[in-house]
Amino acid sequence: MTVVPHHLVEGPPDGDVVVLSGSLGSDLRTWDAQVGPLVTAGFRVVRHDHRGHGHSPVPPGPYSLADLGGDVLALLDRVGARRVHWVGLSLGGMVGTWLAQHAPERLRGLVLLCTSARLGPPESWAERAALVRARGTGAVAAAVVGRWLTPGFALAHPEVPAELIAMVAGTSAEGYASCCAAIGDADLEPGLPGITAPTLLVAGAQDPATPPPHLERIAAAVPGARLEVLDPGAHLVTAEQPERTSRLIVDHLRSVA
Questions:
Q1: 2 found inside a domain
Q2: Angle at the Cα of 202 (from 13 to 116), degrees rounded to 5?
Q3: Beta bridge partner(s), residue 148
Q4: pLDDT given for residue 120 in this prediction
Q5: DSSP conformational letter for 21
């Protein structure tokens, strides 16, 4: 069953559309720092919550990347966007990679942040899903956010991890666990050489969830792809390095346009 995700649309109605897609356990608020620079640059920004996250519907799981990708295609049709720039972090990057392989005619430019083409093993994701279904997302929230930010940044800005922990803990247990299945089952590596959208990859130098080698493998396989590594930076570079991340995104999408 396809669902139209909860979303916000901001920016000039005649601007090129940029879709912002976030990580497992997050909602569209994680892109707050990127919206302003993109709108100022003339882009129309669409950000959304994955199914089972934020204010989106929570259909019965488990989910697949095809489910999440189908939701996004329905969203693009809803907002009248034929072709878009895709900016995805972590799970959002995996969805963008799936779209680049299965619906390339809908993409203009692609930015993949702190993500992977294959993030196994499936058993570890099944274990996390089981834990969340048994004890709720609050049981994993602190550990998840501990991988999102470097210790130094978290110590200097304690309000940021506190807000993110509350965000993860507020995510539907069924939605979170069902998206774990989508990640654990995904293997996007065989289709990487066929991606035609101009691609920028951004890694966090200290990211323990998707370390730079994950992005290096994608960069080596996607024709013409470019990799930037942000240091310091853990998994949520959009929060830890907002200005530099936004500048990289805007510059890449302008070069595509």
A1: no
A2: 105
A3: none
A4: 81
A5: E
